[in-house]
Amino acid sequence: MLKSIVLTLFSTFLLCELSAQNTLLIRAQVLDSISNDPLLYASVVSEKTNEGTSTNEQGIFEFKTKVLNEKDSLLISFIGYNSKRVRIQDLKKQNYKIYLSETTEFLTELTLEPKKAVWYLQQAFENYDNNLDSNSYRFESYFKQKAQENKRTLFHEEAYLENYFKNKKDTSKDAQQASLVLFWEEKDVHDLKFMEKQRKKYAEKRKDKKDSTTIDVGFMDAKSFMMDYYSIANMMDPKNSNYLKMIDDMDEDKVYFSEKKYLYQDSSEYVSVEYYDKKERARITCLINTKTFALKRISGNVDVKIPILLRPVLLVMGVRVKDIIVDFQVDYQEIKEKMYPKMAKIDLKLDLVNFRMFRKNIPAIINSQQLCVITKLKKNQQNPIPKNQRIKSELNESEAFNPAGIQWDDISVVK
Question: pTM score > 0.90 for this model?
């Protein structure tokens, strides 16, 4: 349930060569050839080693390679733009800048009839299993989560993890497994101020009522608005059946299909199918390969409304919810016509008011973001993560398992 994402793309490289332990550190930013805007989450892959990374919110990425591989080429790509291959040793000759151009010459616009659009979704549903890698595999990922209240940071954490997705036939509960390698958290943060006194009061009462089911605000803290890491990982897992259920349960009579476009990238053709469910106040966009019907992206927006019967209860507690908006995006990568995870992102905006009779109301806007980017896919490593190395639902530095002594500087991500 979510809002279609408007793609604005670009690309530039600022090369910073560091010769340390026979490695080169490439620092890059990506710009659109016309607007010079930075590209968020663009894909950068070494053609020699198949290792890759993605740009951050500023369109910047860092990539390490051995000096011996300086003749290697990097492939920079993003949906809707012409991909570009650039040799590392040629970056200086190009003035540290490489521009990606929009694929306007290959873009064909057309209006899809409702049945046609539905047909693409049905094909994605019917071919879903064929587009999955049936084997287990490991991958490395970079994870970030941050929350703010009225632009004051409540917490900010970043982590690097070793992950494992089980094969489809494995019916065990541990669908996702992860081991924490590196952890960082911002120390200069603030406490949640929204209804601070009331929350402390209710929290004290909860201590005396172990099994209390009373609805109050005592549960609220900085992380109560966030999903745990395994929930984010589950969003990326191509074997996640929730997306299939979402497509299969779609009510054609209540869905509106708008004009669509065919998008070309690396000789692959995609169609963007968007539908809006007025009842659920949800808008979802699916990017589908027209040949394999593999899902390339699922994104969207939902405007959550509080049930009418719950509103009086919240008002008694002194809480008025003005708005809840959730945006999400899940990207997949296709390797030899199989779907693998690439990136998952979820943003939440919560507009609250502490309603006070005969006194001035106190507003609070809570913003949170969680982002997970796959930095290295290990298809040939199919062994599960040992139980004593797996993290629990929340990240904790004490659970880090890093026998190789990896440092943040060793990783191709920008913090």
Answer: no
